[in-house]
Description:
Blueprint: E1 9-12, E2 19-22, E3 26-31, H1 35-38, H2 43-46, H3 58-70, E4 74-80, H4 91-94, E5 106-107, E6 110-111, E7 133-137, H5 148-154, E8 159-165, H6 167-180, E9 184-193, H7 197-212, E10 216-218, H8 220-239
This protein binds tricarbonodiimidic diamide.
Amino acid sequence: MANSRKSLVGTVAAEPEPIxxxxxxxxxxxIDMQRDFxxxxxxxxxxxxxxxxxxxxxxxxxxxxxxxxAMGMLVVHTREGHLPDLSDAPPAKVERGAPSLRIGDPGPxxxxxxxxxxxxxxxxxxxxxxxxxxxxxxxKGAFYATxxxxxxxxxxxxxxxxxxxxxEVCVNTTVREANDRGYRCVVLSDGCASYFPxxxxxxxxxxxxxxxxxxxxxxxxxxxxxxxxxxxxxxAAGASR
Length: 241
Ligand code: TIU
């Protein structure tokens, strides 16, 4: 994959300001687009949520994923979930609240939020290729107790295009973790979604406020435009040989 990546820079329209990204050191990070959050009968619904609210993120992510694949960008998918024996699930997480089913209980898509179960898997529309990286995480942030830091360092990644669900929970937590580790995070507003529309809005505002305190907020159209202009540069250079 590293050999096919290009090194040109694209300018992405974003807030609080445009950002220049070297695509060769940029990864697309897709957070937790799992059946457990997106479909009825999974973890999200057991918590009392209307899972249909997350569907809006799928098409924008699919479009950016397709472009990222075409340009050889590193693609990382994450999945929240736990080992079958729950040894990586803190009691404080398992026991809280009054969900209709708890983590580990049998549900219509297998045991709730357990690795290897149908509900834990990524939705078919965004299914990872064998060549792509899948990070299994026990927490909300993708860096906590995972190999993500090592993977990003191995590929020389400095910038993250971040999308997925939910905006204020796993996307925000991951962006905050990444920001503290020195990564420039560009969050795709239409590639994220929340069960709570107001939390989606505020979650994005929190990232871009104060001069981009945690990162930048853009959208799929702006990122696709920046990727396309990079591609045309490359093609023009090739044509003039
Ligand atoms: N409940 C909720 O909004 N989210 C999570 O529990 N996990 C993720 O955001 N992936």
